[in-house]
Specification:
heterodimer, A: 404 residues, alpha+beta, nine-stranded antiparallel sheet, four-stranded antiparallel sheet, 6 helices, globular, B: 136 residues, Alpha-Beta Plaits, 2 helices, 8 strands, elongated, binds iron/sulfur cluster
């Protein structure tokens, strides 16, 4: 059994590594037991493919002649506003940004047809995108207006940088109120008419490495169809939550911030997404390889949907009012059956995260590793764990008095 | 001349609690077969009907519905899934009232059974990547 990442990489380079997906490992462990499986398997691949709102990309668009200082001005990509608080020609586009003239929820529920996530998808697909800039003009950057087509291949840098992705577990959303509501968890029918969930469950990266024993800062990953890296823990990373006896979080817990070169990604795995009545976002494909360094690590990867529990939350009242109350817990095994029992009522379930997409990502990553095209990295620093003492703080509002 | 047509009726919230279907049958001499109904008080109601009767009665019935403010959509239009945009998430399965969008329990793929689709359009906006397209 390979004991270090360096040894596993050697096997990968020689085309000898044994790689299975986080689904395949479940059967393998059932057949052969943890010890044998840990001896035979070098890498377990995970995957997730769902809407991830805290995603975005930054671009260096190159200098025009005469020069323009976009920094501090206004910039739009296909009418979607980008952030310009950087130097002359660096801009950041968030997946949730929407055009200034989008009707939003003026007629509720607003459709949110086009936003930052869609611009990112179009750029990755190689389509031209309109860049419109207004600036204030300086002695060294005299120009005040710029309108031009841009294309991903001509940009100096185009980097996907998502500050919170791959949530380790998530809420199951229902609506106890008497009217349909339109949320980031999809359309929720009244009187618990449906229950929507959003996790790849047994395939989800951080649910296969619940204590972040292998996934750390610098881990090389599948990102948007290309190669990316874990840059940091994601925002709201909150490891110290209720866990099952085998360590699996029963609530939303860890998150990842990820980064990678947009130019080698694919529109198949970065899909502009519209949540009716809520806003725009980006559906992102992520896959993380887990090196089997010990039996313990292997045991974690064998987790199955029946052993992963998520809290059921009322998005009609409890969620918007930030009440901690949950309606119970349910396993992903039950969620995937298509129907759950909630307060004595059968409630149909729907997923926002694509299970077939997650399977495909785990398989692609597996192929890359088997072919020797993708080597594993040693994390340069671990993600903060349970012991880090992180608490997920709410905003404590302090009224601003006149004269303050 | 007798005809029979399938139509989708969208009732604005203010009409949901009115006896419109009763009047349609009584005053216009039409036979109806309800294929699908989805009504929530104070929200838009949806009714998929097969309407049969004399051509003249049918036309008058449709005019009556339009006049009171029901939006009518004929099933002559098609819903097509843009397979390249569908991410196979499954958000649509709880929205579709006819089971035309359903998950294969083995592969977990979201299948679209066109023969079951009544073109009610309920899935069009809730589909996050907007893969369900209305074609005329
Ligand atoms: S909601 Fe849209 S993207 Fe998701 S499975 Fe249904 S058709 Fe496909
Ligand atoms: S239009 Fe969409 S929701 Fe309506 S029946 Fe067809 S697939 Fe189902």
């Amino acid at each position: 059994m390979a004991k270090t990442i360096a040894e596993i990489n050697e096997k990968i380079s020689k085309g000898q590594a044994v790689v299975v997906t986080a689904v395949e490992i479940i059967d393998l462990v059932e057949k052969k037991g943890v010890a044998r499986a840990a001896q035979e398997v070098d890498v377990v691949t995970t995957g997730t493919f769902g809407p991830m709102c805290s995603s975005g990309a930054y671009f260096n668009v190159g200098h025009s002649r005469p020069r323009i200082k976009i920094g501090g001005g206004k910039a739009y990509l296909n009418d979607v506003p980008a952030y310009t608080g950087f130097a002359a020609v660096d801009i950041f586009l968030g997946a949730a940004a929407i055009p200034d003239d989008d009707p939003r929820n003026r007629v509720h529920p607003g459709p949110f047809n086009y936003g930052g996530g869609h611009v990112i998808e179009e750029l990755v697909a190689g389509r031209d995108v309109r860049l419109v800039v207004s600036a204030y003009g300086t002695d060294c950057y005299p120009r005040k207006k710029l309108e031009t087509w841009i294309n991903l291949k001509d940009l100096n840098e185009a980097v996907l940088f998502n500050i919170r992705n791959a949530y380790q577990n998530y809420n199951v959303a229902v609506n106890l109120s008497g009217k349909t509501i339109y949320t980031y968890m999809g359309v929720l029918k009244p009187n618990q008419g449906n229950a929507n969930y959003s996790s790849a469950g047994q395939l989800s990266p951080l649910l296969n490495d619940p204590y972040y024993k292998t996934i750390g800062i610098g881990t090389r990953i599948f990102l948007g169809g290309g190669i990316g890296y874990v840059a940091w823990q994601g925002t709201q990373h909150n490891p110290d939550v209720l866990r099952t006896d085998s360590g699996v979080p029963r609530r939303g817990a860890g998150t990842l911030a990820v980064i990678g070169d947009l130019k080698q990604m694919s529109p198949r795995w970065l899909v502009g997404t519209s949540m009716l009545g809520y806003g725009c976002t980006l559906t992102v494909g992520i896959g993380v390889p887990i090196p089997i360094l010990s039996e313990e690590i292997l045991r974690y990867t064998a987790v199955k949907d029946e052993e992963i529990f998520a809290p059921i939350v009322d998005y009609g009242e409890a969620y918007p009012q930030r009440s901690p109350e949950i309606l119970g817990e349910v396993s992903y095994g039950d969620l995937r059956s298509g129907m759950i029992l909630l307060q004595g009522k059968e409630v149909p379930t729907a997923s926002l995260s694509s299970y077939p997409g997650a399977v495909e990502i785990a398989n692609m990553l597996k192929e890359w590793i088997i072919k020797g095209e993708f080597l594993l990295t040693e994390p340069v620093a671990p993600l903060p764990g349970v012991e880090a003492g992180i608490t997920f703080k709410p905003l404590q509002e302090r009224p601003i008095e006149e004269g303050d | 001349m007798a005809i029979s047509k399938r139509v989708v009726l969208h009732f604005p919230p203010r009409l949901v609690e009115q006896p419109i279907i009763y009047r349609l049958v009584k005053d216009h001499n039409l036979v109806l077969n309800i294929l699908k109904a989805s009504v929530t008080p104070k929200e838009e109601g949806l009714l998929v009907l097969e309407l049969s009767g004399d051509r003249n009665d049918y036309d008058k019935g449709i005019r009556y519905l339009t006049d009171v403010g029901v939006r009518i959509q004929s099933l002559g239009q098609n819903i097509v899934r843009n397979e390249a945009r569908c991410t196979q998430c499954g958000a649509c399965v709880v929205v579709c009232p006819t089971g035309a969008l359903a998950i294969d329990p083995k592969t977990r793929m979201v299948n679209f059974y066109e023969d079951k689709c009544t073109a009610c359009e309920l899935c069009v906006l809730p589909c996050p990547p907007r893969a369900m397209e209305v074609h005329f």
